[in-house]
Structures are given as C-alpha cells and as structure tokens.
Design brief:
single chain, mainly alpha, two-stranded antiparallel sheet, two-stranded antiparallel ribbon, 8 helices, 6 strands, binds zinc ion
C-alpha cells in the first residue's frame, strides 16, 4: 500500500517498506551498472572509429598504385573521420538541454504563458516537448531518447551532432565497404596479398558493412523525424493519437511546419541552403532554433496568417 505525496512515496505497511527497499536497491544496482556500462560503450565507439580508420588507410588507401590517389584518399578519409569524431564527441559532451527551475524562470521566457507545468520528479518546469528521463533523472527539452552509446540523453541541444554522427558514419562505412568488398573476392584484379589479404579485407568489409547497415536504418528514421519535426517519443504518441481517432480527422503533428526546410531549421538552426551544407560537412558548433522552451506550431502560424489576411 502506498500513496504519492508531493512527489515522494509514503509507505504505510511493512510489506510496502520491504518493496520500497528492494526498489531502491534495484535502482542503485542499475545506476552503478549504467555508470560503468555507458563509458565502456563510449570507449568502444572511439576504438571502433579510430581502428576502422587506421585499418582502412593501412590495408586499402596506402596500397594504391598511384601516390596522388593515395594522398587524396588519405585526406578524404581523415576529413570524414574527423567529422565523425567531432560530432560524436559533441553528442557525448553537450548537455541535451534541461529546462530551468520555476524560480530561475525569467519574465516572458515562456512567451507570456501564465500557467507552467512542473515535473514532480525533478522539480523543473515542463514546457511543451519536454520529457523526464528516468536514467538522467532530469527533464530534457525536445527529448528524443536516452542513448547509452553517447552516455547522454539526445535532446534539443545535442540532437544535430547525434544526427550528423550517424550520417557521416553511414557515408564513411558505405565507401569503405565498396572499396574493400571487391578486394575481398579478388575482383577487378585487385591485390589480395600481404596487408590486403583476404582475411584482412573480410574483417574490414564485415565491420564496415555491419555499421553501414545499422546506421542506414537510423539515418533514414531520423531523416524522416527531422523533416517532419518530430522526436522519436512524439512519433509514438502522435501515432497513438491517430489510432484513437477516426480516419480522416486530419490529425497532424502540431509542430510540423509544413515545408521541410523549416522543420530541418528547427533542429539545425535557421540557415540558408549553403549554410546547412556547411554545417553538415564542416565540424562546427551548431545551435538549434529557439530556446527549447517555446515552439512554433503549425496551427498558430495558420492563425497568425489568417489575422494578417483579415487585417489587410
Ligand atoms: Zn523531470
Ligand atoms: Zn537520459
């Protein structure tokens, strides 16, 4: 028997106390496990990125007959690897963006909203698109998911780095697979001896191919989410909303601003096409659009447009 009072569990019976203790012990073990497990995954990712770059250079690029081609491909490989490392590191070290505590809220920060929801678990304000992460024990603005591979929540501030890390890993692994696979089978008369032996090529091809496949799925999924301005969590709640309603009700994700570049700008910051390409290919600091507390909604934009038309 238990009841919740002011966000704290109050237990009324002996059995309740035992259950509470078990729950706390399990939570502690899980917390310690996560504390050890996540840094190990991050270390594994760094080892995989650096290892694959090195083996690809050693086994393939530095065995080209043409020196000019070798130098050019070394430059391209290092450029792509630095993009992957940069975006991965920033996804790990950049906080996802946590909403402030109510007392730290400045006037007008919520766009004039008078009532503010407060999270019972972490006592931070809970604006639209914010979710509480039970692993980080904090609310996260525009939370996508908690990712153990980056030992961090993926949210408003680090989502662009997470997306670009996936996209660059996918691109690099596809190219590496295309280069090593023909060598693995000795196709096109390519050298299969020495450092470029069949076993060596098979290992690089298998690893790059596996990463490329896994990344492909994630890149397509997150491209769909970015261009429709949804998070993974919102996608599932939107789908549940649609299935609850009758077909043809025209339920639409309220944050989908229609034109897909506007949606992309919400995640990657307002930019021209050229600037978007620059952000995607040159390691740099990326700030998403807005402060994560208030969001443009398609229905509001429509209302503003209608008011403007009537005023004319
Ligand atoms: Zn919270
Ligand atoms: Zn989290």
């Amino acid at each position: 028997m238990r009841e919740q009072q002011d966000g704290d569990w109050k237990y009324q019976s002996g059995l309740g106390s035992v259950m509470f203790l078990c729950f706390r012990v399990a939570e502690l073990i899980f917390g310690v496990g996560l504390f050890v497990f996540q840094p190990l995954l991050v270390f594994f990712c760094y080892a995989l990125i650096c290892g694959l770059t090195f083996f690809f250079l050693m086994g393939v690029v530095w065995n080209f007959d043409s020196t000019i081609l070798s130098v050019l491909c070394t430059g391209l490989t290092l450029f792509e690897s630095s993009n992957i490392l940069w975006n991965y590191t920033l996804a790990v070290i950049t906080g996802p963006g946590n909403p402030p505590f109510p007392e730290a809220l400045e006037d007008g920060q919520l766009g004039g909203a008078t009532r503010v929801k407060v999270c019972k678990k972490c006592n931070r304000i809970k604006p639209a698109r914010t979710h509480h992460c039970s692993l980080c024990r904090k609310c996260v603005m525009r939370m996508d998911h908690h990712c153990p591979w980056v030992a961090n929540c993926v949210g408003h501030c680090n989502y662009p780095y997470f997306y670009l890390f996936l996209a660059h890993s996918w691109l690099a692994c596809i190219v590496a697979t295309l280069f090593t696979a023909p060598r693995m089978f000795g196709l096109f008369g390519l050298n299969t001896g020495g450092m470029t032996g069949v076993g060596y090529n098979t290992s690089v091809t298998a690893l790059c191919g596996a990463v490329a496949l896994a990344a492909a799925f994630l890149v397509f999924w997150h491209t769909f989410l970015v261009t429709t301005n949804q998070t993974t969590l919102e996608f599932y709640s939107n789908r549940a909303d649609v299935s609850r309603r009758h077909r043809g009700d025209g339920l639409r994700n309220p944050y989908d601003l229609g034109w897909w570049k506007k949606n992309v700008e919400q995640a990657f910051g307002r930019a021209s096409w050229g600037q978007l390409v620059f952000k995607a290919f040159v390691p740099c600091i990326i700030r998403p659009e807005g402060d994560g507390l208030t969001w443009d909604r398609a229905d509001m934009m429509m209302a503003v447009r209608q008011t403007e038309t009537t005023a004319r």
